[in-house]
Give the backbone structure.
Amino acid sequence: MEDEVRRVIREAGVKFTDEEVESLVREITGLLHLFRQMDQLDLTQVEPATKFSREHLP
Amino acid sequence: MTNRALCDLTLSDLGDRIRRRDVSCVDVAEAYLQQIEENGKKLNAYITLLPETAKEQARALDREIQSGRYRSVMHGIPVGLKDCLATRGVRTTAGSKIFADWVPDYDSTVASRLRESGAVLLGKHNMHELALGGTNINPFYGTARNPWDSERIPGGSSGGSASAVASGLCAAALGTDGAGSVRMPAALCGVVGLKPTYGRVSRFGVIGGSWSSDHVGTITRSVEDAAILLQVIAGVDPRDPTSARTPVPNYRDAIRADVKGLKFGVPKAYFFDLLAREVGDGVRQAVSVLEGLGMIGVEISVPHINYVTAAEWAVVRPERSAWSDEYVRTRPQDHGRDVLARLLMGKLIPAVDYLNGQRVRCLITREFEDALKQVDVIVSPTSPVAAPRIDDCVSGSLDVDGQRMDLVDVSVSLLTRCTIPFNVTGHPAVSVPCGFTDSGLPIGLQLTGRAFGEGDLLRVAFAYEHETGWFSKKRARHR
């Protein structure tokens, strides 16, 4: 993940200290770990909620 | 009446006095401008002040009244707008260095509707940079402060708006709410924050934010004021494809009906799992008050609620990064470090996670819809904690009842934990004051209603507010 983070930083053309990179890696790892919770769910019958606004438009 | 007393009035009281010609629009505008002059600097609630145009607008509105034209209860009411709402001819920064000199040649729909209603625009409110955070610690425009204790944050991202309304620096304000950015600062500053149903209010002209989670909302001193302001801004807008055609009822009439026999639901899980003791006590007392009003409380279950923060961040982070992509590529140095980091991280979230976030969102929305078939409103805290100290937000952790809590950990999302669910589902939710901590900081109660059921939602909030009288308690004075 650190390589990915450094790539995105490099592409953005900004400089981050090693400490900042570490913090970013920690945060994105935490986020992706959080998203893995969703893998436990059975979503076979569930479509993405992009239809939310349509549901409420008569 | 002194200027200070004039600025303590609710929007509805003030509107009545202007209509009766007890005070002129110019008197009111000048009273507010004096309050801002005396107290505004310390709270740093405004990014841009418009003293001359406000007075000019007030003079024109006085002339209209003299000629027999009275526009609405908003005629001559001094308001402020969060600085991410585009205003024609007035700088709109979104709290960002990138837009520091941007003067839009168009109005956001809500700004345009407010102008038409006769409101006087005092200025643009401070906010978290690009609405991407809840502390309002802004590297470019300074930290907005909480009027109850200026060493504490007002919350965010609409923190300047909540601080200004609470301290009498405007009569009402509009903010935006993508994860709780209207309700959470309202709770932390002791005012009323309403996030309407997704689609109820046009998002045209909102700068930044997340397309599917963002809402324009109201920040006011009373529930009746929220009803008045919502009436002005609600309704379909051809410039926002997600705005709804559902008819707009008369909210001010709706709030006065009795609440006896209505049902409220208290969620079994999630909302009460992580809570400062004093906040929990305040919300439990509010439940007793609602029962005392003849409402019936029941436990409700939302089986997949614990997945709600995952769904929110899987959707919101990539949407915000997509919106900001051009600015991150061309002007990365013009972002604050925390905001730049968040925007870069959004690029690392796989599309599969984004889409699964949208699917989980659908699942949880259905579950709340089911719960709201059994009850009229859902009761919860707004923020699990009272306003944190600015120092704690900088260090990233906070003491809650002797336990150190991480303010940065997204899986906890401490400040927005209780508000996020209704950005995910789009249901309307309002934060009303429900007491104070021992150290005198406000606590917020969150009430959530059925989609497009703002009338019933505000009716319960109004009954609660009048039963407890929190809104008439001593007005915020910065210390």
